[in-house]
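fyi for ur records
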Amino acid sequence: MIKTTYVIGHRNPDTDSIASAIGYAALRQQQGDNTVIAAMAGAPNPQTRYILDRLNIPDPLFLADVHPKVRDTIKRQPVTVNQQASAYEALELFNKSGVRVLPVVDTDFKPCGLLSLLHLSESYLLPSQDKHRQMTTSLPNLARTLAATLETDHGTDTLITLNLFIGAMLEESFSSRIEGHDPHSLLIMTGNRRTIQLAAIERGVRVLVVTGGHQLEEDLCKLAQKHGVTVLLTPHDTATASWLARLSTPVTCLADQEFAAIGIDKSLATLRQKLMGANVAAVVALKGDGTLAGVATKSSLLAPLPYRLILVDHNELGQAVPGAEQVEIAEVIDHHKLGNSHSNSPISFITSPVGSTCTLVARRYRECAIEPGTQVAALLLAGILSDTVILKSPTTTDADHQMAAWLEERSGLVAVDFGRDIFAASSSLKNYGSADRVVAADFKLFTHEKYSIGLGQVEVIGFDEFYSMKERLLEALAEVKRRDNLFIAGLMVTDITTETTLFLVEGHTLIAHVMEYPQLEPHLYELKNVMSRKKQMVPHLLKILARV
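which gave:
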């Protein structure tokens, strides 16, 4: 199976997250792997939106989640049987395909029943004298199954129930055998026996089948026409023809009309619940229009997924796209602390304490001796400038400066000027549209022993807008704290001109006594020379949580 590999950053992605995903996917594609696709776990924030638009780079593929779905495990070309087909044709399909269940479909390819090999076998193999004599069929199905020609035709396409009798004895014995049966319910099968044929026709039986490739004599044909007897001529011998006749029953008469079904967009967990139900051999998977997409059995739950992930700018599953814990992680490229990611097999894990994941991606280009295109070089440069606040953040390293200079040459941009343009165009809180979006734009979760905390961060030029929105932002933080059951929920509002952060926090009141920064008012602290969430704010909060 050829798998698609999605390069994807964390939830509520920032510029570094999206830029590194696009940049690394482009590198892998230049290396010849066209199965690698850039993706994002959330919508671009205003800063990233400005950068993508300015560089004329399309958005990565949006993945709201990667929970395995029904569509990921079913075979897309299911073996089906038409509702007009006979049991014999269904058996041929079972034999050729090796499947154990067949969806019965109508002319619109919508399932109208489910036929199992077990049920079909039981219908014909379990001993029952009456069952083996009696059959439900239609004359077209009977003729097709017997490869017969119609000598006389008095039939319709409607289903009829017939009792099969073999005429392989003297006429007197034969007549006594069918005595008491409604002639219109009889199917008489015989070879080149005129006396049996005549007796059947004179009684006005529903169907007369002449086996062995023999013709019906002309006077008997006329008599059959007169008495309304349908005559079929089959090349098969009587033993074979009697067996085939019983298999002429349409599959709609044998299939289960009530069957389990599921939409292809439903989760694999939902499918598992259905398959674990009593007497459920298979579940029919449906497209949105109700047509058949495939058939899922218990083995479908073990099928490998057609996609895997490369995580960039994060390594903790708590920050990853929902469902990542159920998907193969092929690689990780990150510059944060190590979290709780695990893999079932060895993977490439690139991590370094630099200011931006884009620095690590740019380094990979150099290590592979591959030149990034102008757009990609500019995008990677934007990611570095964003995460290091134009190379002024305490997280900035020599590697960030070196890669920024290398990308300057390939993008044709001046890093400082480009960085100022980025922050000038995206620093207004009004760009986010609402207080909820300001908080959620770059919000990450962290854990420390029994505590879970959430921190968002936005960069601004001046704090005037923040003060006008402060109460609404606090309400938004309170809602996030309640919804995610957090110990504290905070928002870092960082002024890139003064290199000062105002920290708005909703949480336990005890943190005020251990915060170690000036409290300007309830819920608000001033953090001078604090610009980095990763290197300054998170370590500080984890330290004070140990005291609470």
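The domain at 430-545 is CATH 3.10.310.20 (Diaminopimelate Epimerase; Chain A, domain 1). thats all i got for now
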